Amino acid sequence: MRFLDLKTDVSAYLTDNVGAEYCYHNLDHTLQVLSDAERISDAESLDDNSRVLVQTAALLHDVGYVGGRERHEDRSCAWARENLARYGYEHQAIEAICRIIGSTRVPQSPVDQLSKIVCDADLATLGGTEYRATAARMREEYRFTQPDLTDQMWPAKQIEFIEQHSYHTQSARNMFDAQKAANLQQLRANAVVDTLGGGADKTQPASNRSALNEHGRDLALTLAGVVIASVALKDFLVPNRFFDGGVTGLSLLVHELNHWSLGLLIVLFNVPMIIAAHFSAGSRFAMRMLAGVVMLGVCLEVMPSIPATGDKLLVSVFGGALLGIGVGLVMRAGAALDGIEVLALYTLRRTSFTIAEIILGINIMIFVFAGFAFGIETALYSILTYFSASRCIDYMVEGLEAFTGVTIISAKSEEIKHQLVNNLGRGITVYKGERGFLPGSYHVSTDCDIIFTVITRLELRKLKNLIAEVDPNAFVFASAIKDTSGGIISRKHHH
């Protein structure tokens, strides 16, 4: 396999044929991906034959841009099948190279070590020290290839993509994860975005008055949440020996067993979570969480305990509800009073469980221990308290703005995409698929764009009416979004 000859010819081919509008996906990008693929190959200790396959796939993965952005991976594979034999590549090697190139299609789908290496090299720029410059070139290219992507939407698109991305090889994670986290933190610091939305984003700094109003509102929400949560703990849960889940539940357990200060325990148990939050969600969120936890600890120390009721059912339902309302208000202010989500995220990276499953497992252990220490009845009422608190947290955080994912399949996808972006003000994701396969005409199908967007449930009727005006026969289905990756808690602000 004459790779050096191939590299010379492909470099000339890209220089002569890739349009000037592709200011990112050009020869410079190809050579950078090739260099990063070679670095990762060295770290992964590939043999010489595998290394050449990786080098060739990296060199050819974007050669299809000569024909445009859409389906460029398919054209890259076609180019490989048509030309590689002239450079001494056998059929089996060519097919392996095409399989690797196909895996780089976003969302990436590597199936073996070689595919993972090239996929990681293709997106190594996310963890590069020059990310800001490369992102600027990407933005200029997208003005041509994705004209519906506005400048206001661009910061949110970057943040969402990086949050959802993860490198496939340990070598790439070692090389790029730290800088990728720094790049993400910088993006968050420079933009105010809606975490799940896709609506209008503010790329310019807010006025001093707006900033003060926002900080004032967040402070008021935090204070209100802390006071309400303190009432729930001091006047409902603690006098009746009821428990909650998470760090708060653990603090209540230790308090009941040793009679140590509850406020101090909540602060101490949350300190490791706050440190972890600094690295996972940024310093702003960590500082807000620290402030909220300290305020809760102080409030628990100075607030008198006036038991509201001794009825266990009322305590579990209304005590849990008040605690959930308090925690939810603090979360709407962009902070947290309980670090269990941070602990779950840390554990997630080392297991195959979801965040929800990890949190459930931790809470089950807390309630089981409470059952052994204080009786099964207390444990069962505590579970009811936790359920009541969880439902109130969901309502306070999501409220009437609970997010819904909508998938749309239509023959008039271009018109629908235009309406969603320009009239509804929502960002979209487009998957390539096929429609048809109907009973009686199974073998009849056509290519189509499958559109996915995220809206609030109040917008669902408006969206359906909008789609019906364009294509009454469009297939539309919606689902509630409950468990997302790329963040610690559902929130309105980036931290």
Can you tell me about this structure?
This protein has helices spanning 3-17, 27-43, 48-60, 72-83, 91-103, 113-122, 131-145, 154-164, 170-190, 208-237, 246-258, 262-281, 283-302, 312-332, 340-348, 355-374, 376-398, 413-422, 460-470, and strands at residues 403-409, 428-438, 441-456, 475-480. It is of the alpha+beta class. The chain folds into three domains: 3-190, Hypothetical protein af1432; 208-399, no CATH class; 402-480, Alpha-Beta Plaits, CATH 3.30.70.60. Residues 192-210 and 483-495 have low confidence and may be disordered.
In brief:
The chain is an alpha+beta fold and 495 residues long. 61% of the residues lie in helices and 8% in strands. It has 3 domains: 3-190, Hypothetical protein af1432 (Orthogonal Bundle); 208-399, no CATH class; 402-480, 2-Layer Sandwich (Alpha-Beta Plaits), CATH 3.30.70.
List its salient traits.
single chain; 495 residues; alpha+beta; Hypothetical protein af1432; Alpha-Beta Plaits; 3 domains; 4-stranded antiparallel sheet; 19 helices; disordered C terminus
- What is the helix/strand order? HHHHHHHHHHHHHHHHHEHEEHE
Strand content: 5-15%
Number of helical segments with 4 or more residues: 19
Pick out the low-confidence regions: 192-210, 483-495
- The helix content is 55-70%
How would a textbook summarize the main sheet?
Answer: 4 strands, antiparallel
Average of per-residue pLDDT values: 82
Alpha-carbon distance between the termini? 51 Å
Radius of gyration: 27 Å
Q: How many domains make up the coordinates?
A: 3
Q: Class by helix and strand content?
A: alpha+beta
Largest sheet: spatial strand order:
2-3-1-4
Shape: elongated
Number of strands: 4
